[in-house]
Give the backbone structure.
Amino acid sequence: MRYEIAVTVLPEGNKRLVEHYENNRVNEFFVGINRKLGPHLNFGAQSGLLYQYASGTVDGKVVTKGHGYGYTFLLGLNYRPVQQFGMALTYRYASSIDYDVDSELMDNVGSSLRRSIRFPCFLDAGLYYVPLKWIEISLKTEFQEWKKVMDSLNNRLQLAVGLKISPAEHWALHTGYFTSGRYLNGENSLEDVAFITGGISYKIRSNLIFTLSALTSHFFAGKMADGLAQLDQTEILMGIRFEPGNE
């Protein structure tokens, strides 16, 4: 199992200081298990460590920096009554991250400032259908509990669709579309940003799979609200998945 936290970072504290941040990243390191509960039902669990690092620069010089730690856990169920159809349900939680900011901009108020980053909870429900042996179609909705992050934000429901094509025994092609309300506009509400994805996977052995994929909002980049430009984001992901139970 694998997932990426994709959220709007909402630090608390001095608003003037936040304007100087250029990078605020959250990385996750995790392990997980998957266990059969019956002929048609699988249960999965995952826990992870969050590491957050914030830094800001002025004229090429780092003037603000800070880091902190948190944790995550994930619980999932997969029900497949027949070979051609299945359903999945997943719950994800991430703790808040508290950290101190050291800044040369705060000489008049002290050497550091305590801050916090908060994340929503996620509840995913999905369906997948295999009309032909080499084609799989998936549909997922995701509930995001943003009121836990900030009272003025509304909870959100996101949508994702995907297509997997397996033209050969060891190869598979993936593509998809999803919306992500990860960006704030000027009125403390979240704007939908559309992404498209594409990738390939290769089964090196029965229990070892190589994956290469990319996601981008380039084709949908525009204006979120008056005077605010949407972030044009592209990411490339590469990994190896090991499935010991398939040996």
About this structure: The radius of gyration is 21 Å. The longest helix spans residues 15-18. The helical segments are 15-18. The chain has a mean pLDDT of 79.
